[in-house]
Specification:
Chain lengths: 444, 638
């Protein structure tokens, strides 16, 4: 029975509604009858959204529709029958084919790996191999899959310490001998994690593919299935051994693009093709079951290559976006707080207003690494063109070429985490480690 | 075949209606796009695949999964005027359109239904491609209403709001095309209880519901803006859902044919039992008859074989004569099997021995075919020509349908044809295909808001008829037609400003004239209220005449977005007046000098008719008659 013993029996209910339901001894999933002012409603008691008010009960009518029924003190609720046990029952998994490549899927959460439990209203990970095969049966033709849930977090709740744990987990799997690793991830900060792994996992022998979805997988129109097929295919047999993001190439369900982890950005709030390679082309594309490389410039898959794990990130680095009229105290704040580095997201070719110059000078004098990326997103920083830029260079601000601002933030955290001295960190920052800096700006 | 004059109460006919009516709100249900359609080539296209998902009860619809496995791709067409990222399923829905809620609540109160306290938007799984999301967003707004139809109380189970689906623009088989302009247009759905007992009554109930909806003056009009789904069953038959009846006049026919179809299928069941057939005898044993038809004179088979396809045949024991028996006008079991074969096997059609020899297939070939599959004189043989996979799927579906024939009437969803017959559409969806739309918070309906709406309800249709008769001196027929026409609001607006055209003439134009135009294929729905009002204003100001209205409306229906003024110009329908008119009358008098001489003022009728006939639409009859009389008087006086 429901009530006090079982907090899940009346999920989401509070106040008057909870009181009435408790007194009636019903729980979610029961068939109930509600009588109020001579009106009678019958249906299955459903969970309530935690943001709903405390004066309505949600029932599912026989027709399948949900409605909310207002409760007052004299509302009568009775149980008239036991409800159906509602459970996610995956169909039997297809036969495993042991001679296929082995792919490890590590889940960190996000839209791609979630489904709503309609009884409790809770979102739960759906990431057992069985679940995945049932959602995307095609996967069993591509690889033998093993799955593991590392976290179940919205991607905006991930921190640099999570990046380190993800890197360690991926390294562990690769050292166990899988042919590739797929990481399911919320899309909001997927590009940051991709950059972090690009720096932390050096000398990769096999691909590491981050994948997400812009539409949850419990919808018929979800992009999750195609993205997963793309990610698992690449992990299983792509010729590259790099950290990439696999997402829809267009708004059509026809192709998946693979973006280099240091060069990718989420550029749309909701579209399937939100992820774009910036300043470069995607490194590969999968269409009609065929993976095609779009560049010759990539690290080849090589099982015998030795993986080096460098998973340390110093969180004392800030990304500061300059805007007209910005108060330079923002920079002073980070200095006072003991930060070790600041990536400025400047305007145009890499500028900030002169009113910020004293604060920047002070920061550099106090030993912070101050570097410059551009808020234009596309293009390369060049601080030799205008006086402001030249002045900033003279102060010791490091121009970051065509590096994305987000990648620059992650890279500086990593450089400070791994280097023995700020000088060494500075050299790391300026050196191309994982394709984050390109010498040539190609027309894309 | 059934005799005419079925006693519907004896066969236990029960019909429920679901009336869907598009609303004329300013924007769509879940975004700010204009609810309208576009013509011509699409500027935007994209391709999707819809994947069957488990419902909240953990089930997958088998038909849906089958479709998916076949690799069906959907090509969507769009433009930026009629759709945005929401319809493309590239952006979450915006909050439910409050204007649409208001209309639905108004209808609910007019039907004595009880509005729900809190509206919850649901997702109803539909993965045929008609919704880019793979589900239709829908919500119950009110429950348990009723309407009076000719003295009988008809229960209204639900009043719901839902988004209209994309419209199919072509493609069969592996690529289906849909245009998403219609997707998201608000639809109100009114569902009656399954209590209607005759085809005629079904039509009357639909008419009554339609009148109440139109009374809100917030409904769209034109072809396809109102659609009825019918749930029809007879005793021992099955509940059959018939989708998409667009013409009110067709409802009774569809119900009648469906009742007959079910009776006919029951007769076939009884006949099969009489012949001693048991289900185990109907087997999935398929025979390759490709060799047999190698030299055939049948062009369809020949072409298929030349393309390397197979001819596959199956015996249907004891079915001889039953496949071609007409169970309802134009409907036969053989055709139902063909529909299934098309759906499950993607074949063009099937052949069966009941209709052979024909189509170039000879008697000898039929005999050899029967020998090949071991069929006797009581048996039928069905065969198809296609790829081995498609042909196998098609014959499997045929065998399944044959087994169902022995059981009676299979439950299924059927689609209405324009002639009142129906065709197989898909299996009936499972009950558990509705789950919550988590992107839209529930909407609370306040008591005060309901009271406010209740205090300003539109007048009921019967009241409107009485008022029109009294206020505008319309006869009952015209008043009724006007109330049924969707133009009541416009009528009152025109009458308010028009001095030259009588209310009766306005009413007749909006009803009878428009009806005649529609019959001639003019899409009157394309012409907006503003345009129609302008046309009457032009008549009023003497720019054109009442007689020119049909021509102007026709022109406007074909020239979207143009003005009545432009129509008058383009058609050369400007009124002849002043000196031109005097010259014209004088010319006519000269041309008919003899008549004038002979009959004097008595020639008026003849001349008037002559002029109006020759210059109809360009003359104001009143002015002409005054002028003509004056001239005749003058001539006579001379």
């Amino acid at each position: 029975m429901g009530g006090d013993d079982d907090p899940l029996s009346l999920p989401g209910y509070k106040g008057v509604a909870l009181k009435v339901l408790k007194e009636s001894g019903v729980q979610a999933g029961d068939l109930i009858r509600i009588s109020r002012d001579g009106t009678v409603y019958e249906g299955v008691l459903m969970p309530r959204s935690e943001y709903g008010d405390d004066r309505h009960i949600v029932i599912k009518l026989k027709s399948g529709y949900n409605i909310g029924v207002r409760v007052t003190a004299d509302t009568l609720v009775e149980k008239v029958g036991a409800g159906v046990e509602i459970a996610f029952k995956p169909p039997p998994p297809p036969k495993q084919r042991p001679n296929l490549p082995r792919v490890s899927i590590v889940s960190t959460g996000g839209t791609i790996a979630s489904r709503v439990d309609y009884r409790t209203g809770a979102v739960r990970p759906a990431i057992s191999a069985g679940d995945l095969y049932s959602i995307v049966p095609e996967l069993s033709d591509i690889a033998v899959i093993e799955t593991e849930v590392l976290f179940n977090l919205f991607s905006e709740d991930l921190t640099p310490s999570h990046w380190a744990r993800i890197a360690e987990k991926v390294a562990e799997r690769i050292r166990e001998g899988v042919d590739g690793v797929v990481l399911t991830h919320g899309t909001d900060t997927m590009a940051y994690t991709a950059a972090a792994l690009s720096f932390a996992l050096q000398g990769l022998p096999v691909p590491v593919v981050l994948v997400g979805a812009q539409r949850s997988e419990d919808r018929p129109s979800s992009d999750a299935a195609l993205n997963l097929i793309g990610a698992v295919s690449a992990a299983a047999e792509a010729p590259f051994a790099e950290v990439v993001v696999a997402m829809h190439e267009t708004v059509s369900d026809v192709s998946v693009a693979f973006h280099r982890g240091t060069k990718v950005r989420k550029c749309h709030t909701s579209r399937r093709d939100a992820f774009k390679s910036v300043n470069v082309k995607p490194i590969a594309r999968l269409a009609d079951g065929e993976l095609v490389m779009l560049t010759e410039d990539y690290r080849r898959r090589d099982r015998d290559r030795e993986l080096t794990l460098k998973p340390n990130f110093d969180p004392k680095v800030a990304l500061v976006k300059f805007y007209p009229g910005m108060n330079p105290n923002v920079i002073d704040f980070y200095v006072e707080e003991g930060y070790r580095g600041i990536v400025l997201e400047g305007t145009g070719l890499g500028h900030v207003g002169r009113s910020c110059f004293p604060s920047i000078k002070k920061a550099i004098k106090r030993g912070l690494i101050v570097a410059m990326a551009s808020q234009c997103i596309w293009g390369r920083v060049n601080m030799n063109v205008y006086t402001n830029g030249r002045d900033l260079l003279a102060m010791g601000v490091i121009p970051l070429e065509d590096m994305l601002a987000e990648t620059a933030l992650v890279k500086l955290m990593w450089a400070l985490g791994e280097a023995d001295s700020p000088e060494e960190a500075k050299i790391l920052l300026k050196t191309n480690i994982a394709g984050e800096i390109a010498a040539r700006s190609i027309y894309t | 075949m059934m005799s005419e004059g079925v006693d519907y109460s004896k066969i236990g006919l029960l019909v429920g209606l679901e009336c869907h009516q598009q609303l004329a709100t300013r924007t769509k249900l879940f975004c700010s796009c204009k609810p309208s359609l576009f013509k011509g080539e699409p500027k935007i296209t994209f391709v999707r695949r819809l994947r069957p998902t488990q419902s909240e009860l953990g089930q997958v619809d088998p038909a849906a999964y089958f479709e998916f496995k076949k690799g069906v791709r959907i090509l969507y067409e769009a433009d930026n005027e009629t759709s945005c990222l929401v319809e493309m399923d590239e952006e979450p829905p915006h909050p439910l359109n409050p204007e649409a809620i208001e209309v639905a609540l108004t209808v609910a109160l007019m039907m004595n239904a009880k509005p729900v306290d809190e509206i919850h938007v649901m997702r109803k799984t539909v993965i045929d491609g008609s919704n880019t999301t793979g589900f239709q967003r829908t919500c119950v707004v009110a429950l348990n209403g009723s309407i009076e139809v000719e003295g009988r109380t008809v229960p209204i189970e639900h009043i719901s709001l839902e988004e209209d689906a994309a419209r199919k623009t072509g493609g069969e088989g592996f690529e289906i095309r849909y245009r998403i302009d219609r997707l998201g247009i608000p639809l109100i759905e009114v569902t009656t209880g399954p209590v209607i007992r005759s085809p005629r009554e079904a039509q009357r109930v639909a008419l009554a519901i339609g009148r109440i909806l139109r009374a809100t003056k917030k409904v769209r009009r034109g072809i396809g803006t109102i659609r009825q789904d019918l749930n029809v069953s007879i005793r021992d038959g099955a509940l059959i859902e018939i989708k998409g009846v667009q013409e009110l006049e067709l409802i009774s026919k569809v119900v009648e044919y469906e009742a007959k179809r079910q009776l006919g299928l029951l007769e076939i069941r009884d006949e099969l039992k009489k012949r001693g057939l048991v289900e185990e005898e109907i087997r999935e044993e398929f025979h390759d008859a490709t060799e047999l038809f190698k030299e055939t004179g049948c062009r369809v088979l020949k072409r298929a074989i030349n393309q390397g396809k197979k001819v596959l045949a199956v015996k249907l024991p004891k079915f001889s004569g039953l496949l071609s028996r007409e169970i309802a006008p134009g409907m036969r079991l053989g055709r139902e099997m063909a529909d299934r074969a098309r759906f499950w096997g993607r074949v063009g059609g099937i052949f069966h021995t009941d209709e052979l020899p024909a189509y170039g297939v000879t008697e000898d070939e039929v005999d050899r075919l029967k020998r090949l599959v071991g069929a006797g004189p009581e048996d039928a043989v069905v065969f198809v020509a296609d790829s081995l996979e498609n042909a196998t799927d098609a014959l499997r579906a045929v065998v399944e349908r044959a087994k169902e024939a022995l059981r009676g009437v299979p439950e299924e969803t059927r689609a209405a044809n324009p002639d009142g017959t129906t065709r197989y559409m898909r299996p009936r969806p499972g009950a558990a295909r509705m789950y919550p739309e988590t992107d839209i918070p529930p909407i609370r309906i306040d008591e005060e808001y309901l009271q406010e709406l209740a205090s300003k309800l539109p007048e009921l249709p019967e009241e409107a008829v009485k008022r029109l008769m009294k206020e505008y001196n319309l006869n009952e027929k015209l008043a009724n037609q006007l109330v049924d026409s969707e133009y009541l609001g416009l009528f009152e607006e025109i009458v308010r400003v028009s001095r030259r055209v009588s209310p009766r003439a306005v009413a007749a134009t909006l009803t009878e004239t428009f009806k005649a135009l529609r019959r001639d294929g003019v899409d009157v729905g394309e012409v907006s209220d503003e345009q129609i009002l302008e046309v009457f204003r032009l008549v009023d100001s003497g720019r054109t005449t009442k007689e020119a209205i049909p021509e102007i409306i026709t022109w406007l229906s074909k020239h979207r977005g143009r003005s009545g003024e432009e129509a008058v110009e383009a058609l050369g329908l400007t009124v002849i007046s002043g000196d031109d008119l005097r010259a014209l009358v004088d010319r006519v008098l000269q041309e008919n000098a003899e008549v004038v001489r002979e009959r004097g003022e008595g020639a008026f009728g003849f001349l008037m008719g002559y002029i109006m006939k020759r210059f109809r639409g360009r003359l104001d009859a009143k002015v002409v008659s005054e002028l003509l009389r004056e001239r005749l008087k003058n001539i006579h006086g001379e």
